[in-house]
Specification:
Blueprint: H1 10-16, E1 37-39, E2 47-52, E3 57-61, E4 63-65, E5 73-79, H2 82-91, E6 96-97, E7 103-105, E8 109-112, E9 122-126, E10 138-147, E11 158-168, E12 171-173, E13 180-190, E14 193-201, E15 211-217, E16 224-229, E17 238-242, E18 245-248, E19 259-265, E20 269-274, E21 277-283, E22 289-296, H3 303-306, E23 311-319, H4 325-330, E24 342-346, E25 355-356, E26 366-367, E27 372-376, E28 379-382, E29 391-393, E30 399-401
Parallel strand pairs: 2-11, 6-10
Antiparallel strand pairs: 1-4, 3-9, 5-8, 5-10, 7-9, 10-11, 11-30, 12-23, 12-29, 13-22, 14-19, 14-23, 15-16, 15-22, 16-17, 17-18, 19-20, 20-21, 23-24, 25-26, 27-28
């Protein structure tokens, strides 16, 4: 029978003499009744965040014993990229080994002194992040290659240091005068999908009329993902209207925080996530959507000001498949533009101008001087001046640790 790691802390283990209960990928031959070695920090999860804001940046890796050792233990460590593929295959993740030359292990040899339970430290360094592609999840796999005596717990043999880069990004500061619609030449058919956008509310105020800020629609608006806060004075909750299905969030949103909003449709159910955590879900019958129209704000003449609320936004993504929870959480700061199923991706990080590039390279760029707004009825009028109200911001608020 196979078990999963469950350690409260190394200190508790040393005090009680307890041993790991772990998933042994090498079979059931491990003797769990004796002391064993493990890489510090892998007690509950071998993937550990390594925050990197400036380079070079260092992380101290140590090896521990579940009991104090009677004699000195010599340990050899190494960065082993092959372990990443094995971990991804076993866990359904998409981590990428940090490129050679961007990281280093300062010393490969550490030791645990007699009468101790923790080794000397080996510093792992991130030398540069210039070759790291934004949106990819990089790890540094530091593994135990050999020990002079004793056994290593198989599932705690390798620590995967996930490089968490602090990204300072551009975003758009919403302006009601910029509210309009961009209509693409051709539709994108979506039978299953994931929609994502990041917003930073600044003007939520529980008014009795809605504060609408985005719609992703068919050309004729017959099917859409429409988003608005404070519908019927709903205490800063977000209402989603998705092809007639109305979904009210459980989350009460606040001004002054970044939120990644995610909607997943798997063909039978809709799931709404806030910052990677499931907020609500329910059955929905959606017989495909032909996305062709993006509405910034509430664009209808007059309502563009009445239903406006101040906020920042960026990272608008459209996928033609249902993302898993782990995939959503891996893309909190950004996604790999070459990801499977990513059909359109506007980072809104240009910083100047009014043309928004499709980072997925599917040719769905948006020129905001070529937008349209309804003035009366369903008639659309060109709004070239909407481009003049695009406002870019980049400051200490716009930071994310990927």
């Amino acid at each position: 029978m196979k078990f999963r790691i469950n350690i409260i802390s190394a200190a508790l283990l040393m005090l009680t003499g307890s041993v790991f209960t772990a998933c042994n990928s090498e079979g059931d031959d491990f003797d769990w009744d004796k002391s064993a070695l493990f890489v510090s920090g892998t007690e509950n999860n071998p993937v550990v965040k390594f925050v990197v804001e400036d380079t070079p940046a260092s992380y101290a890796v140590t090896v521990q014993s579940t009991k104090k050792v009677d004699s000195k233990v010599d340990i050899e460590l190494a960065i082993d990229a092959s372990t990443v593929d094995a971990y991804n295959e076993a866990n359904g993740t998409n981590y990428v080994a940090a490129p050679e030359g961007s990281v280093e292990l300062e010393t490969s040899k550490v030791s645990i002194a007699a009468g101790s339970a923790i080794s000397t430290a080996a510093n792992v360094k991130v030398l540069s992040t210039e070759d790291l592609v934004e949106g990819r999840n990089y790890v540094i796999p530091v593994t135990v290659k050999s020990v002079s005596q004793g056994d290593v717990i198989p599932t705690s043999k390798t620590i995967f240091l996930r490089i968490s880069r602090v990204i300072n990004f551009y975003a758009i500061q919403a302006d009601y005068r910029a509210s309009s619609n961009f209509i693409f030449d051709e539709p994108v058919h979506l039978s299953t999908f994931t929609y994502e956008v990041k917003i930073y509310p600044q003007g939520l105020n529980r008014r009795n009329y809605p504060q609408r800020f985005l719609a992703l629609e068919q050309k004729d608006e017959s099917k859409s993902l429409l988003l608005r806060f404070n519908e019927a004075n709903s205490d800063n909750k977000l209402q989603t209207i998705l092809d007639g299905n109305k979904i009210m969030s459980n989350t009460q949103f606040e001004n002054g925080s970044w939120y990644l909003l995610t909607w997943v449709y798997d063909g039978a159910n809709v799931y709404f996530y806030v910052n990677g955590t499931l907020d609500t879900s329910g059955a929905a019958a959606i017989n495909g959507i032909d996305f062709q129209r993006y509405e910034m704000g509430m664009s209808y003449q007059g309502y563009n000001r009445q239903q406006f609320f101040a906020h920042r936004f960026c990272e608008l993504r459209i996928w033609n498949r249902a993302l898993s929870t782990s995939e959503i959480n891996a893309n909190m700061c950004g996604a790999d533009p070459q990801s499977e199923g990513l059909v359109a991706y506007w980072k809104f990080n240009e910083g100047t101008g009014h043309v928004f590039k499709d980072a997925s390279n599917h040719g769905m760029d948006m020129d905001w001087s070529k937008t349209k707004r309804a003035v009366r009825g369903d008639d659309l009028s060109d709004t070239p001046n909407a481009a003049n109200s695009i406002k870019w911001v980049k400051d200490d608020i716009n930071k994310c640790a990927q």
